[in-house]
Amino acid sequence: MAGIRETSASFTIPVTSHDTALCILPPVEQCEHIDSLRELYDKAYGRWPAHINLVYPFVVPERLPQAQQQIQAQLQRNLVSSATRRIKLESAGLFRQRHNSTTILQESRDSSDGSLETLRSLALQALGHKPTRHTFHLTVGQTVDNSMSSLEFLISKARLLPTLDFEIGSLAILVRERTSGEHSANRMRLWGLVDTISPPTVSTVPMPEYWLNDLPTSAVDEDQEDDEDGLSSSTAAFSRAVQPGKTFFFDHASSKWVKMMNLKHSTSQSTSLTVSSYNVLVDSEYPPARDRDPLLITTLLSDPAKADIVVLQEVSDDFLSFLLNNAEVQGRYPFTSHGPPSQPDIGPLLSLRNVVVISKWPFRWELVPFHRRHKGAVVAVFDSITTDRSLVVAGIHLTCGLTDGSVTAKKVQVQNLLNHLTRRYSNNPWVIAGDFNLATSAHTIANALKGKSITSQTGNTLAAIEDQLSGNGILDAWSVTRDEQPDETHCLDTDELFEGEEGATFDPRNNILAAATSGTSKNRSQRYDRILVRPLEALRVTAFSMFGLPAEVNGTSVVPSDHYGVRASLQLSRPTEQLSPNHREMLNGLKVEVQRASQVAAQELESTLHRHRMFLTEEQNLKRQAAFALLKGIVLGISTNSSSTAADIPLVMVTVGSFALDVDTSTSDIDCLCIGSISSKTFFKLARQRLQKADSQVIRILRKVKASTGTMLELSVNGVPMDLQYCPAARVVERWSEFEDLPASDPIFNLSVLSLRKLKPYRDLLYIQHTMPDLATFGLAYRAIKLWATQRGIYSSKFGFLGGVHITLMLSWVYKRIEHDVNTRDSHPIGANDLVATFFHHYANFNWADDMVFDAFFHKQRPRYHRTAREPMVVLGFHSPNSNIAHQSTLPGLVLLTKEFKAASARLSEPAMTWQDFFEPSGAYSFAGMGFGETLFLQTYKSYVSIDIQFWGRTLAKGKSLVGWVESRCLSLVVDTHKNFPNLEVRLWPARFTENKQGEPDKSKDYHGCYLIGLQRAANAPLAPKSHVERQAAKQSLEKVINRFLNQLRTDEKNYDASTSWVNALLVTQHDVQAQKLRLDDRDWGDYAMEIEPDSDDEEELDDPNDEDAELPKLPIRSKPISTSTPVSTTKLRPASDVLNRLRWDSNLDPAEYIIGYEDRFLGAKESSLEKWKTEQTDEEFIPQHRILYFRRKFNDESDGKGELVWERKTRIDKVFGSGAGSGVLSQERGL
């Protein structure tokens, strides 16, 4: 061939062995749709991967090393490393055999660049053979026969597959593995790879042998001949394991159906629910009949069929595409279990007849395969429809026919479904809807027994199936409402209906399509289609009806399908929660008094919030969603050119916080959590590499933050602020599809405290979404409280005030508590205005000194949280580890919060109050460049402490660092001032002020801004000093506090550089402040990326083992650990492992408060925080527990920096359990 050097092979190796193959394996993430079809139609599935053979047969296994070496050498001599070798399989074709045909994918003549021919020729030449012609293809499956319907069916599926388009990284060498015995196997294993000298952008990482999963093969059973599709090979292997499905939703912005990355919980809840079931009938295999499609759509959109959830049976590729491309369907049912196969990036349905669920609400689903091929149940799970549990809707289409084999198959299928629902969803309400294909006419069954079409045993099996469907508290919606509903069975003759024919949905006597399906119009009517309900006190059947009944059109009877559709109306009931006596007693002691705000309208609240920009515009919402999708794709390594959403390494990414709760505003950042199987060090190194390769104008790494939960990256993605954290949890990723349903006791949560702390926000988010009475009402109230707190200058958790998490936890408890109390649920439901008023009233009168805010529905008993003297305010989350969300709160901040709560509650109680007046008091005005809240702050206080910051350095990143550091120190001045002057009201405004002129460019490197702390005598304080001497003494004392704070700032050499910056703190008057004509500082420091040290993105700062040039430091002489005292007891001491587990898992102890002292093999005594202590021997930082010397607290109440020892091996002190010389002080303090 042109361009190839003819070289003689070192040795000629025959290519005659069918036990080996040289082939190309497509990327595993692009094989999803192909392998789904191969599972049902390809007899080689489970033994071969999806592949394109280059040379097959290949060399005998014994000659593989030599063959690999010769081929590799030949490729190195003849291939250009910078060349791109791309494959694009976009054409479907057939290989005809004698009895059947093989459906394949291949390159089209126009798209082929000759790469496959080149690689095959080089490989054969390397082995001493001349190149021969070859048809390169990827096998999809085999047809049953060579009939037109069978051929066109499978090739039409192949044509609907998304195009396989990828670059060749390596050639795979497969070798056959033969084993004998009970679990005999004959399958191809990956022996090795041959590098194709790829460009750097092509990955050559060996792929896992994903096709070797132990799949239960479908043995040909006695009923196999009744396979209803009858269009696939009976020898293919297929899995009967439960398979997670992918839900699609219609994205109006792109006008296409897209996969849901994260489950969107419904934003509103209703008191009723309607479920419909309809068999739409596939009446021809090929060509597909389309004449009934418009009538079917009209029927599904008609009022009698209108429902919240629709279960469809016998759905074909052609009909589903027609259905989901209808604009009205897209608007009414924006969520579906299967996307339209006509959309290029969505693959075909697996079978000829499929079960599909469409809904107005989001859901997640899974396929429960039955023993027979092409049969299975679609189990959809709807969260947030019922108040406390998910609703499970199962769609089924059982085997048809009244034969011994088909009835037995039906019994097994029903049992399989019920077993799955009982095992996975025992505590959830169920709805089972679909075509059961169970003969109900007593006349039909009697004739079958009489004619010996079925045995008496089969007659008993039919009765047993009916018993199965009426057990476990399952109700038939038709039977429940039978006496209340009119008989919709259309009978044109006068024959009396036999038993079991009432409510028939398959009626050959009146439905011409049913007559055609059954072969005669004389067959009896059957009630095949049903909707079954297991209420569990959450559902109540209120109505049942049919649709799609015969209609006269121009004197002709017209029906959309051979089955009638059925619809059930359900009432959503509030569950009566079963509480233990102790739990009920605790709940009764935590009353929340409802405050009705009838004078203000909920409609006005929403419009007022819109005026204050507390809702995102459509453009802003799309921008933020696109930013998250972009970040996710880059971090997870998902190619933008690929339709696959699978990451190249096991990683998942979710959002938490306001974005996930859908209460974010334009100024909110997006909190992202990535969960994976790699270490934190590896992840952040990988993430930073991928982010830096991205467009720097689109994604910028602003800085790395050492947060309380570990390392965090602050990012800007298309101008959207985002935070990225990582949690190493391999087992969580492996079981991600079932993560939301796992109980807290599942072993998967046996993780380190640091990993649990990182998972906690997402687990708490799921609990909130699942248990909130109404997310729309909650969201409206949340926005109102956030706007109020922002205006009042108390929305800033870093300054000890309220944050988004505080509002979420405090508001959710109030909402759930008043909804649970029967006495508060009258005819007038709780609206957002009532909820806001109740929130203010409850926390204005809350006993913060003695009580904690916690969810008493989650915590079955009062949490045994040990609060320190530095925690005046305690707000607890849900899942472990237990920690105080309000740990940064201060006593002066709490006093101010309570004052504001009381003022807000009083204002909302005024008779003439409106939401407009509440947020914008009449007569209020604002200084230039400020809101009325800041203006009021500058007018209220007579004295202020001004903390000035000036910066004239070269890099804006250092300016941002300086401002952030000073900001973090301001709270200490507030605390010290209040400590020395308890009668003063000390208020820090959580925003910077500046004298810079409005509109001055932010790129100016000179900066001058200030923080202000207002000072005034507290309302309940005694009279102020009257004499001049007393006032001067008080002023001097205050100035000493300020000067001490200032001295701490200026002596901090790490953060303060006097050559480029200046900080000052002065006591000023109101007149001095107003004379400066301040405005809010709107400089966006986030535009400037911070300087991040290379390879420092790990949470455990480790040395780089690959740094060979670095000079090895001399090891210090190992020092003997120094004991703090001498042993005082010889009694048995509890081991360090017991203490470690107690401090880590006891719910009333905070692991973050403890330090572990241990003996390093080279450096002697060292310390580490308990949260970062590794217990897995596979961890690089693992330290044996026999080297633990002591446990101590980080700080004591005197804050002298010397934490109290709670356990020490040398002195045998144990204040955790009281063993050794200890007295159990720690246990006694916490009431254990």
In short:
The chain is of the alpha+beta class.
Folded structure, characterized:
- The radius of gyration is 36 Å and the shape is globular.
- The N terminus and C terminus are likely disordered.
- The strands form eight sheets. The protein has an eight-stranded mixed beta sheet with strand order 11-10-14-15-13-12-25-22.
- The termini are far apart.
- The chain has 30 helices and 41 strands.
- The longest helix has 25 residues, at 956-980.
- 29% of the residues lie in helices and 20% in strands.
- It is of the alpha+beta class and 1232 residues long.
Features:
single chain, 1232 residues, alpha+beta, eight-stranded mixed sheet, seven-stranded mixed sheet, 41 strands, 29% helix, disordered N terminus, disordered C terminus
